[in-house]
Amino acid sequence: MALVSGCIAILQALAFGCAWALNRRTPGLGRWTLASLLCGISLLLVLCRQSFDLPLLTHWLPTLLAWAGTALLYMGAAEFRGRRALLKWPLLCCVPALAGYLWFGWASPLTWLRPAFYSTPTVLFLGLAAREWLGEQRAGLRLASCCGGGAAVIYAFSFVYRAWLIAIHRASPEPFQDGGDQLLMFVSTLLSLFCWTCIALLLLNQWHHLEKTRFHEAQLIAQKNLVDAERQLALRERELLNERTLRQRDLLLRDLHDGLGGMTANLVLLVSMGRSEEEAAERHELMRHIEHLVVGCNREVRSLMDVLEKGPVDWCQILQELREHAEHLTAGHGFNLDWQVHGKLPESPLSDAAARLSLLRCLKEAVNNLARHAQARHARIRVRFFNHCFGVTVSDDGIGLQNGKTANSGGRGLPNMLRRCEELRGRVRIHGSAGTTLRFIIPLPVSHHAIAQKPPFRDLANAGGALHEKA
């Protein structure tokens, strides 16, 4: 009987081992494989008592292996449920059970009490495994788990009943003696092995089914979340596009007001004055001013259209446009211009239309101030590029500034220039003691920001100091 049971347990362990090799992600299956292997080895060692009887090899070791097998059965059940097995108190209970097993097995003649101590750890671990299986609440695993728990309870009851039969009859506990208790253990062991094999396969199949279902549900949730995220992203992009459109519209309207608004207002005033003027000389002078304002309006419109239509503009084009503007103005007022560019130009073009427009308006206003109000003979423009910013120095040998304003003008050119530079997160230094010197320091990459967003100027101040020294 021990030979049959042991061979069946070994074959069960081999089957579990193959299943575990193909399903390593299944929790608890590896421990159940080892448990079947230990129980099979234990039964085969017990069978060796018919050939030789060594207490350490044929009594103590099979008992410890059987206890370890039932402990692994409990640990596998806890792992299958995703719980941690509690081994501290069960292992402490094994110590007096082992002492009683050794005492009543060899030191005491009351050998009929030995099964009571042998069965105690086995029944304890089987009961813990049954509790884990009966506590399974996952749908699809309840039936198989309840069957496993019931089989563990019945198998534990067979151990208790055998120990009780041997104790009341004071029979020999040896497994090869004839008696009903030995037949009971043989039948219960075979039934437990058969039931546990079927239950383990059923649990494995149901667990894979639940894993596939859970994976499919996770995919559906992920797809739903992805669709929601894409929808929210599209809404956010639309909101940002609307905000950007409104911001660009406001900026363009302001630029139109600042550039063309004043010119058209002057045109209306001059036309009104021309209607009431009777002298030809005065009317000719008014017409000359009107022509000048119309040409200025045309240039403003062309500059605005160029900014909107060109898209990203290379720095060479920006510098070329600024140089042509400066050369045109200085040549018209009869003084020389010294233009120089130092440093490596940024590789990325200037793509922000609002920033490009503010930059050109700011620098052109500095050149306009130099040409109209400086009364100079020589002018110098230096452009220097650094790693994180660039600087522009516009200087002349004219009459200079008084209290931050031009001597001959009380207009809005200088405040607008300062505001536009601030919108680019830059700053302006003005020196007007001997001639006029305007130093612009603007961070790279150039972008347009609200005036309230003022950056720390530590890097800009260092670059400005270097610019001042090189200028």
Describe the structure.
This protein is of the alpha+beta class and 471 residues long. It folds into 2 domains: 2-226, Up-down Bundle (Rhopdopsin 7-helix transmembrane proteins); 314-471, 2-Layer Sandwich (Heat Shock Protein 90), CATH 3.30.565. It contains 12 helices and 7 strands. The strands form 2 sheets. Strands 1-2-3-7-6 form a 5-stranded mixed sheet, sandwiched between helices. A two-stranded antiparallel ribbon has the order 4-5. Strand 2 (378-385) and strand 3 form a beta hairpin. Helix 2 (29-47) runs antiparallel to helix 3 (55-80), helix 3 (55-80) packs parallel to helix 5 and helix 6 packs antiparallel against helix 7 (180-276). It is rod-shaped.
| Helix content estimate | 55-70%
Instruction: Spell the H/E element sequence.
Output: HHHHHHHHHEHEEEEHEEH
What is the C-alpha radius of gyration, as a whole number of Å?
A: 48 Å
Count the E strands: 7
Mean pLDDT over all positions? 77
Number of domains: 2
Low-confidence stretches: 403-410, 452-471
Based on helices, strands and strand pairing, what is the structural class? Answer: alpha+beta
Notable features of this structure?
single chain; 471 residues; alpha+beta; Heat Shock Protein 90; 2 domains; 5-stranded mixed beta sheet; two-stranded antiparallel sheet; 69% helix; 8% strand; rod-shaped
Give me the secondary-structure topology.
Blueprint (H helix, E strand, L loop, with lengths): L1 H21 L6 H19 L7 H26 L7 H20 L6 H21 L7 H28 L10 H97 L3 H31 L4 H19 L2 E7 L10 H21 L4 E8 L3 E8 L4 E2 L2 E2 L6 H11 L3 E5 L5 E7 L14 H13 L1
Parallel strand pairs: 1-2
Antiparallel strand pairs: 2-3, 3-7, 4-5, 6-7
Helix pairs in contact: 1-2, 1-7, 2-3, 3-5, 4-5, 5-6, 6-7, 7-8, 9-10, 10-11
